Amino acid sequence: MEDKFYKTNEDKFSWIVGLKVRIKTTSDEQFEGEVFNYDPITACIIILSDESTAAVVTQKRTVRIILESSIKEIKSLSLPTSITTTPTITSPTTNKQNNHNNHHQNNISNDLSLPSLNVQLIIKKQDEVIRKATQKAMKIGVGVTPEAQEIFNSISKTLPCDWSGENIIVLNEVKISSPYNIENCTGPENSKSIERVKKVLEAERKKLKI
User: Fold this and answer.
1) Where do the domains of the chain lie, and which CATH numbers do they carry?
2) Could you tell me which residues belong to the region Disordered (predicted)?
3) What are phi and psi of 139, to 5 degrees?
4) Nearest one of 165, 150, 202 to 181, comparing CA atoms
5) pTM of the predicted model as reported, rounded to 2 decimal places
């Protein structure tokens, strides 16, 4: 069919959906497909295109959004099924074809439908991301030197560490204060943790060559 796609603004909203068209743009590109929707707010036409033989088999289509102002010419190739009013005589062959078309349309609807969202799962993942981000932020010292942060990062690979101001707290009981040497380790008396922390600190400082 060589009819123009639309003639008045009313046509855009009343009968374009479902129409198979050929669109020629101002840059001389051509697209063919079925009109899925027309958005009057953005003045865009959305078409579904079958661009390969594989698309026919898989029922997968390419969605194109074309700005109305970029359209040079539109021609209708076939009318929407919903506006066909001519009576037809049904036969087994016709019924078979209709069933095929209905199946095709159902597949298209399924492809275009949005998946349901598991809100609880989304909230859970969001909370997990926030928790990890908070933990990561707590591992960054505030107002400390790059050397102090390097020492913290190295020790934390072996022993659990946290910042308390500019002090490094290891195993929740041993404090390493600036300038973070072995003699700067303090903790409960007769605690085996102090000696353990000192050994780790000494080894890490040697690795870092500081």
Assistant:
1) 1-81 (2.30.30.100), 121-208 (no CATH)
2) 85-109
3) -85, 0
4) 202
5) 0.43
